[in-house]
């Protein structure tokens, strides 16, 4: 797997592998609405550009046997940067957080475990992977949040909020980890699954 990333960082259309140097997504949603939680960040990202995934390193891979129903891949990305338009409506402690604008979000040492439940589907006499369920527990070493134009352009409040989120990025991830992981799963679905599902699974085990 590391060889594939190393050889094709710009992608390969033959097996639907995207360009990992610059990944573009239309929309990503992260939402936490628990009224009792001190942190609620309900936001949407649009016109997303992600860089850094071409430096991903696979640490382990399990379950890639002929009759397996589960795959698990553990990997780490040294530095991931996301540029996007955003809309946010949430709460930080007692302070409402609201705004629309441009955001830049970085994650250092992003650790991801991809858990993939599959079934096999016959096409043209061969077995192909069909995704049943995908889990992606994730955690970065630290993160930086830069929501531009929060509070209708109030720079003092915006800078203070971004600073609190960044300086407490581990607590932010602990509070929002499940929601962030669902967002990462959405990215994985768009990037990885087309490649996995377009190749005949039988060919990996040809004698």
What does it look like?
One of its GO terms (cellular component) is extracellular space. InterPro entries: Haemolymph_juvenile_hormone-bd, To_sf. The protein has 4 helices and 9 strands. The chain has about 210 residues and is of the alpha+beta class. The chain has one domain (about 1-205): Bactericidal permeability-increasing protein, domain 1 (Super Roll), CATH 3.15.10.30. Strands 1, 2, 3, 4, 5, 6, 7, 8 and 9 form a 9-stranded antiparallel sheet that branches.
Query: Helix-strand pattern, N to C?
Result: HEEEEEEEEEHHH
| Termini gap | 21 Å
Mean pLDDT score, rounded?
A: 86
Oligomer: single chain
Structural class assignment: alpha+beta
**What is the count of helical runs?**
4
- CATH fold-type name: Bactericidal permeability-increasing protein, domain 1
In CATH, what is the homologous superfamily? Answer: TULIP domain
Key descriptive features of the protein:
207 residues, alpha+beta, Bactericidal permeability-increasing protein, domain 1, nine-stranded antiparallel sheet
Write the topology of this structure.
Elements: H1 2-7, E1 23-30, E2 39-40, E3 43-51, E4 57-62, E5 70-92, E6 95-123, E7 126-135, E8 138-139, E9 142-147, H2 155-167, H3 169-191, H4 193-198
Antiparallel strand pairs: 1-3, 2-5, 3-5, 4-5, 5-6, 6-7, 6-8, 6-9
What's the gist of this structure?
The protein is an alpha+beta fold and 207 residues long. It has a single domain (2-205), classed as TULIP domain (Bactericidal permeability-increasing protein, domain 1, Super Roll), CATH 3.15.10. The protein is built from four helices and nine strands; from the N terminus they run αβββββββββααα.
């Amino acid at each position: 797997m590391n060889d594939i990333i190393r050889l094709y960082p710009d992608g390969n259309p033959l097996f639907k592998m995207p360009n990992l140097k610059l990944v573009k997504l239309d929309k990503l949603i992260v939402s936490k609405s628990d009224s009792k939680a001190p942190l609620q960040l309900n936001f949407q990202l649009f016109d997303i550009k992600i860089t850094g995934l071409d430096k991903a390193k696979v640490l382990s891979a399990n379950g890639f046997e002929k009759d397996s129903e589960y795959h698990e891949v553990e990997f780490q990305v040294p530095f991931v940067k996301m540029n996007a338009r955003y809309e946010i409506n949430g709460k930080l402690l007692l302070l409402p957080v609201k705004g629309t604008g441009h955001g830049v979000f970085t994650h250092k040492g992003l650790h991801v475990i991809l858990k993939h439940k599959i079934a096999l589907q016959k096409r043209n006499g061969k077995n192909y992977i069909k995704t049943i369920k995908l889990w992606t527990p994730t955690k970065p070493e630290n993160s930086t949040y830069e929501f531009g134009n929060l509070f209708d352009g109030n720079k003092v409040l915006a800078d203070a909020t971004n600073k609190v989120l960044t300086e407490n990025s581990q607590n932010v991830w602990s509070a929002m980890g499940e929601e962030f992981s669902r967002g990462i799963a959405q990215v994985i679905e768009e990037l990885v699954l087309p490649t996995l599902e377009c190749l005949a699974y039988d060919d990996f085990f040809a004698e």
